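Closing statement on the adenosine-5'-triphosphate sub-project.
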Amino acid sequence: MDHFLKKIVNLCKRRGFVFPSSEIYGGFESCYDYGFLGTLLINNIKQEWWKSMTQYRDDVVGLDASILMAPQVWKASGHLTAGFSDALVECKKCHHRFRLDYLSENKCPDCGGELTPEKKFNLMMKTFVGSAENEAAVTFLRGETCQGIYMNYRSLRDSLRLKVPFGIAQIGKAFRNEISPRYFIFKTREFEQMEMQYFVSPQPEKKDQWFNYWKEERLNWYLGLGVKKENLRFRKHAEDELAHYAQKALDLEYKFPWGWDEIEGIHDRGDWDLSNHSRHSGQDLSYLDPQTNERFIPHVIETSAGVARSFLVFMAEAYTEIEGGRTVTTKSNKEKEVFLSFDPRLAPIKIAILPLSKKEPLVNLAREIQKKLRQNWMTQYDQSSSIGRRYRRQDEIGTPYCLTVDFDSLEDKKVTVRSRDTMQQERIEISQLVDFFRKKMNSAEN
Ligand code: ATP
């Protein structure tokens, strides 16, 4: 595993962001569990995406559809045929299996053995619904969340009186029986997607306009949360690489420790999905434009992002190592210091509350302050070990602010607030803390 990736994996485990699933049984390939801090980070990422889609604009609404759907959905969408398959090859000697497009040579990368000819391997995960394990009861765990959006497109459109162009956003789990899961949480068989389907007029110029619009919007979302421009790029899909539903596709790629790789897809899906569902279900999914009186099946511009991939991007961007440390007064100043420079909106813990002594009046005041702040922000109280060590523990999990309560606080009703990034300390009146943090937390400019 890449050296830098290994550091991130270690930190994630040590500080309780991510653990291997079923670890006491030796783990379960490609499955991971998010610990407390990981769950907080994941929730913050999802919340920022959700807000950017449904709260900060008028034309996108949200949905939470069922993971299990009628099997006909997957037949109509084309996921049960070759379109949603990867080319698989097997080593004749060690029987390891590989995704053909990940191999650079014709020999087995593990033992050098000869490989079988390629075989199409469908990625849908089969399951049974009900007590009869026969073909009639077979359905699939959803391979992408957006099919739930197509299933609800008409109901949402009509119940909310939506006019094209409009979008539907959804966050949820998807499942693919990947041949080669890899790079920690980057490619797993169970994963979460943040998908938005934007329904537009089929006119090519309008479609292109929206495609370019969403491409920029999505790039700006990552930039706005602190990802460096030089670590992001778009890659256009070649004709022979396009997914079965796509007319045009761009990958938004990030410069991962192992090289450039996809974090999100921007796709022009044309009318592939709605037309197929209309045909297979016999239902009319067309739209009558009230202005032009034209009737058409809307085309779809999709933005499809992976939650875990965003997690890795924000983690890799935030991970900072300082040889010799920043806090030269600590005993351990020869060691490396690690801090995560998360945007405050993403940081799992926003404010750490650290009394300088375990004496009762300080502890009481610190707890009182925490009680007030935790109404608005995720806080953590820590009174054990030296203040230097406590700062470092918080830096390592990306807490943007530490607040220390000292004996002077009892007299002057002020506390010291230390910023993670600048290590600058300010004395702030306790009564002003909520206002102070409100200003700091909502933007990256602090
Ligand atoms: P890849 O080429 O990496 O297999 P894909 O092109 O099949 O991905 P899409 O179908 O476009 O991926 O899915 C949209 C997004 O969903 C991806 O950009 C990624 O963020 C996320 N995603 C897809 N498959 C996985 C997976 N197996 N594990 C984690 N995230 C995934």
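The domain at 331-445 is CATH 3.40.50.800 (Rossmann fold). With this model delivered, the sub-project is considered complete and its resources will be redirected to Aim 3.
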